[in-house]
């Protein structure tokens, strides 16, 4: 028995909403964690502004650890932590925790690579002018790398859209959950096609926005 | 004023020591343009970077305006660095910011009030001739214009010292000239001390008062431009001078000399000061039974003093030539040119 798409529309809207919330909230929290960590990776490394070998190596190992766990395993493995942090281990809010743990370290690496593109000569010029390490981070590294950081955050966002589709496992809802629940498990092909098309559309919009914003940031 | 006293910088490289700067003694006076020339890897960049402590010296003392920077606290060092401007081969401008913001940067990080910054930026942009480019971005500028932005940025804090690391090496000859003239104007109008690093003798000849020649981390020779050009001691120095004086005799002329067979008398005559203007050879031709054949020559000016080299052939009886040579040698320096000298 086929479900009428029009009748089903409110359910789809709700799923879109859940996806956007999951991705949006996770992105903001992950960026708040990942960007400072990415900066820390660049300034504490050998020859960096605030070189600190032990800190750099420790942070690097921790980030690699989280980056090496497949998302689906992370999702299940941290259920107790999720319950502790948000009071429940199911639902949209609960999905945010694994998404942040998945994408925060990823963003740290992406930001690191963006910052490493900043020409060392420009950093050195600022040092020669008597800028402090903080001034160099905020007034040289970040503005010079911003365009590239925005592009990389776009990549991270699209990664989050994909990962959020798996969050159905913890009852996170969203478009991915809908596609699996109806399209895969109940053979509602129409719904599967619609939700996948919507995911494609979201990814296209995110990438386009990212490109535009990145281009804007090249000249501030 | 910058003083290097027995300064060394040693890098560890795979357990091996590399003496990038080795026992350097240089004293640069206030208001002087001092050049350091050397081939790539000689240690020039390391030497300038020691001045504002971008590199820590391994030994010796460096005094900038009488201050030993390595004894300052971190904030003290940052304050001192604001008195030392620096410009670079690849300009090192913020690509994401306008010319105006780039030039204002040193004042922004000092917390200078906006109004003051604006007035000062206008002043220095006017000085370097870029008033109309204030709202453009570095990538929209030519190399010469970017270096002018670099100079404006270095000048905005009214420093006592300007360090230039290969400031003209990425520029074409015409632009190089205009940037060098600008540096000269900077010195003349602000009485700055300029330390200029380069591998181009032309740049040194154009603007420097004194120069040190570096090789393998050591200063092998130093003195006024004039001393160095008129009486170079070290082969490397001679090499650099030849690079701008074209004092090598072209092969076509050398082979011409050979064709004429033995018994030829070819000399390189170096003129300095007013002697360059003296009609020595016309006197020789008048007073001795010799003919003077000028094969090749170049006359230039160093620090406002005429300086030149001529390659001449003397034709005549051996005895007369010896007498003529004797006469010439009394006023200018003469060197015999061998046929295989080329
Ligand atoms: N940070 C560094 N670590 C190790 N070796 C260095 C470093 N900086 C420069 N050197 C070495 O020191 C020598 C002098 O370099 P440099 O001062 O850049 O020469 P120049 O500017 O005259 O070309 C070179 O052999 C270079 O490889
Ligand atoms: Mg160099």
Helix content of chain B: 25-40%
Question: Please, how many domains of chain A?
Answer: 1
User: How many domains comprise the coordinates of chain B?
Assistant: 2
Structural class of chain A: mainly alpha
| Quaternary organisation of the protein chains | heterodimer
CATH homologous superfamily annotation of the largest domain in chain B: P-loop containing nucleotide triphosphate hydrolases
The radius of gyration of chain B is 25 Å
H/E series of chain B, N to C? EEEHEEHEHHHEHEHEEHHHEHEEHE
How would a crystallographer describe the biggest sheet of chain B? 6 strands, mixed
DSSP strand content of chain A = under 5%
Q: Enter the CATH topology name of the largest domain in chain B.
A: Rossmann fold
Low-confidence stretches of chain B: none
What is the CATH class designation of the largest domain in chain B?
A: Alpha Beta
Would you tell me which CATH topology of chain A applies? Answer: MetI-like fold
Question: What characteristic shape of chain A results from the CA principal axes?
Answer: elongated
Explain what you see:
- The complex is a heterodimer of chains A (220) and B (342).
- With 220 residues, chain A is mainly α.
- Chain A has a single domain (7-217), classed as MetI-like fold (Orthogonal Bundle).
- Chain A has helices at residues 5-44, 53-68, 71-77, 79-86, 92-116, 120-128, 133-166, 175-184, 189-217.
- Chain B folds into 2 domains: 2-243, 3-Layer(aba) Sandwich (Rossmann fold); 251-336, ACT domain (Alpha-Beta Plaits), CATH 3.30.70.
- In chain B, 40% of the residues are buried.
- In chain B, strand 4 and strand 5 (67-68) form a beta hairpin.
- Chain B is built from 12 helices and 14 strands.
- Helices cover 37% and strands 30% of the residues of chain B.
- The two termini of chain B are 43 Å apart.
- Chain B has a 6-stranded mixed β-sheet with strand order 6-7-8-3-9-10, sandwiched between helices. In chain B, strands 2-1-4-5 form a 4-stranded antiparallel β-sheet.
- The model of chain B has no long low-confidence stretch (mean pLDDT 89).
- Chain B has 342 residues and is of the alpha/beta class.
- In chain B, helix 3 crosses helix 4 and helix 5 runs parallel beside helix 6 (173-190).
- The site of adenosine-5'-diphosphate (ADP) has 12 residues of chain B, from strand 1, strand 2 and helix 1.
């Amino acid at each position: 028995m086929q479900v009428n798409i029009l009748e089903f529309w409110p359910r789809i809207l709700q799923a879109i909403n859940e996806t956007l919330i999951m991705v949006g909230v996770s992105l903001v929290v992950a960026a708040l964690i990942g960007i400072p960590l990415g900066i820390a990776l660049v300034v504490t490394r050998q020859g960096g502004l605030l070189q600190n070998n032990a800190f750099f190596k420790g942070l690097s190992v921790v980030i690699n650890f989280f980056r090496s766990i497949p998302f689906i395993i992370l999702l299940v493995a941290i259920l107790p932590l999720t319950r502790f942090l948000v009071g429940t281990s199911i639902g949209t809010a609960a999905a945010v925790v694994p998404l942040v743990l998945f994408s925060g370290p990823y963003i740290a690496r992406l930001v690191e690579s963006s910052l490493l593109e900043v020409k060392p000569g420009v950093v050195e010029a600022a040092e020669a002018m008597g800028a402090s390490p903080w001034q160099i981070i905020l007034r040289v590294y970040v503005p010079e790398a911003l365009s590239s950081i925005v592009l990389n955050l776009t990549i991270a966002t699209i990664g989050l859209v994909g990962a959020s589709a798996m969050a159905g496992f913890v009852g996170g809802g969203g478009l991915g959950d809908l596609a699996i629940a109806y399209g895969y498990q109940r053979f509602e092909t129409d719904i599967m096609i619609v939700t996948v098309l919507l995911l494609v559309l979201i990814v296209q919009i995110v990438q386009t926005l990212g490109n535009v914003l990145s281009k804007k940031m090249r000249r501030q | 004023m910058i003083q290097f006293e027995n300064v060394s910088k040693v890098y560890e490289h795979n357990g091996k020591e590399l003496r990038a700067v080795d026992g350097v003694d240089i004293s640069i006076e206030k208001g002087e343009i001092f050049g350091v020339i050397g081939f790539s890897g000689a240690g020039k960049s390391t030497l300038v970077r020691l001045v504002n402590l971008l590199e820590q010296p391994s030994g010796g003392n460096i005094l900038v305006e009488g201050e030993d920077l390595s004894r300052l606290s971190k904030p003290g060092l940052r304050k001192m660095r604001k008195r030392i401007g620096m410009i670079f081969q690849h300009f090192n401008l913020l690509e994401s910011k306008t010319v105006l913001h780039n030039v204002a940067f040193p004042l922004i990080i000092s917390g200078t009030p906006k109004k003051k910054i604006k007035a000062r930026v206008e002043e220095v942009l006017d000085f370097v001739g870029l008033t109309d480019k204030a709202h453009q971005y570095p990538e929209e500028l030519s190399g010469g214009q970017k270096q002018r932005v670099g100079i404006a940025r270095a000048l905005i804090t009214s420093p006592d010292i300007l360090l230039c690391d290969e400031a003209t090496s990425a520029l074409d000859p015409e632009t190089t000239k205009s940037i060098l003239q600008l540096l000269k104007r900077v010195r003349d109008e602000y009485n700055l001390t300029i330390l200029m690093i380069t591998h181009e003798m032309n740049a040194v000849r154009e603007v420097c008062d004194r120069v040190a020649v570096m090789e393998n981390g050591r200063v092998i020779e130093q003195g006024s431009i004039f001393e160095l050009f008129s009486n170079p001691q070290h082969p490397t120095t001679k090499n650099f001078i030849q690079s701008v004086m074209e004092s090598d005799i072209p092969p076509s002329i050398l082979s011409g000399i050979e064709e004429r067979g033995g018994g030829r008398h070819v000399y390189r005559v170096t003129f300095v000061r007013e002697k360059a203007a003296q009609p020595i050879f016309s006197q020789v031709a008048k007073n001795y039974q010799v003919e003077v054949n000028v094969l090749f020559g170049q006359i230039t000016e160093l620090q406002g003093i005429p300086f030149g080299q001529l390659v001449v052939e003397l034709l005549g009886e051996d005895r007369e030539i010896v007498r003529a040579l004797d006469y010439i040698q009394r006023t200018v320096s003469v060197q015999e040119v061998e046929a295989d000298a080329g």
